[in-house]
Amino acid sequence: MTDTDLLVAGAGGGLCGALRAAQLGLRVLVAEANPHFLQGNNTAMSTAMVPGAGSRFQRAAGVEDSPARFLADIAAKTGSTADPVVAEALATVSAPLVEWLADVAGLPIELPTDFGYPGHSVPRVHTIAGRHGSVLLSGLAEQAGRVELIDLLVPARLTALRPSPEGWTAVLTRPDGETEEISARAVLLATNGYGADPALVAEHLPEIAAADYHGSEYSRGDALRISTELGAATGFLDAYQGHAGLSSAARTLVTWTTVMHGAILVDESGHRFGNETVGYSEYAAMLAARPGAAGWLVFDDRIHEASLAFTDYRQVVDSGAVRRATTVAELAAATGLPAGPLARELAEAVAPDRFGRTEFGAGLTPPLRAVRVVPALFHTQGGLRVDEHARVLRPDGSAIPGLYASGGAAAGISGHGAGGYLAGNGLLPALGLAYLAATHAAQVPSEGEGTE
């Protein structure tokens, strides 16, 4: 008999898989390397945005949506380069997932409709009050703590896997170097990507390698290393989520909701350099390429008030990083930006503009505010190839029995580079693939390596 039915390596989105597996009667062990995971992993650092196409929350708000419409948006944003099998699986499960998060995981799911995110043709990005991942993760952890079938081992890092007749033998390593072997019928790799490994980032993501990394220090590519040694296939290793809105002073995210409400981004010469509404991910590399690799988000009191719903933005405000002025000249003096170019950019911030931006909200009206921002790498989007059940695949397309991957450990649905990233493309694969993996693991008999 194995020690556990399902070993989940990673207590971020992996907790979703743990809860789903326990709901279906599996014994689950969650091993997490980070002793401070409730604040320090990428799920906790997110804005808790989870797409759900066709959910009851959308219907209640009068929003018409479907998995097919979501898939069309993914295709448009990625240039039809996203993995079609994984994209369809996640689009299909997205609405049941957010409803499950409310009904079973007990999260206070809500659907913001006061603004749209780049690439989403309708409001479908669900969140929770406060719009911060630490609240979402705490909710999942609290719920997991109430379930007898779930055990949590922290800190313990998965460092090796060996196939066994009953499934897998996993080597878990403590910070002091002590190791423990755990037998499991199935393993879910939910250890995120490789953003904390500078060598891998330089190899696969050179355009963003010099930018700040704003993610978990434990995202070291463990799943890639362990699984490629087992013959797993990888894909989309050049894909990532960047962000052009990290406060340089607060080291906290200035949410892109400021842009979607009408803010503009200027470089340190006071000039805009593109259509900010195309997406915050691809804008990170664009900002990184500007002189000084920094800029200023400029907005007004109306946008400030609308952005206070986000915990991240409130933290930026509380840090004192937001400058405020009653005139353009005063704002230029407060930021050190050249007054002439800044004034011209504000005057020309009307749709349609020279970059093709078609929406500026109600326009910018003094008093004005500004926050200095730098580009950042948030997490990688490429990883292990998986199928519609989140099973890890070999290069020939066959599944490695009993081995699953989710979130940044798996090849996601953002296509290549940064431009295909849609809001929620991080959490949907993290939660959704974990949910699909647990569901499949509960439906298949015990299977050892080499069997199907």
Question: Which tags fit this structure?
Answer:
FAD/NAD(P)-binding domain; 16 helices; alpha/beta; 452 residues; 32% helix; 8-stranded mixed beta sheet; disordered C terminus; Flavocytochrome C3, Chain A, domain 1; 6-stranded mixed beta sheet; elongated
Tell me the domain tally: 2
Average of the residue pLDDT scores: 95
CATH H-level superfamily of the largest domain = FAD/NAD(P)-binding domain
From the alpha carbons, calculate the radius of gyration and give it in angstroms: 22 Å
CATH-defined fold name of the largest domain: FAD/NAD(P)-binding domain
> With helices defined by DSSP (H or I, 4 residues minimum), what is the helix count?
16
Shape: elongated
- Quaternary state of this entry equals single chain
Measured by DSSP, the beta-strand proportion falls in 15-25%
Low-confidence stretches: 447-452
- Alpha-carbon distance between the two ends: 20 Å
CATH class of the largest domain: Alpha Beta
Report the strand count: 19
SS class: alpha/beta
Helix content: 25-40%
CATH architecture level-2 label of the largest domain:
3-Layer(bba) Sandwich
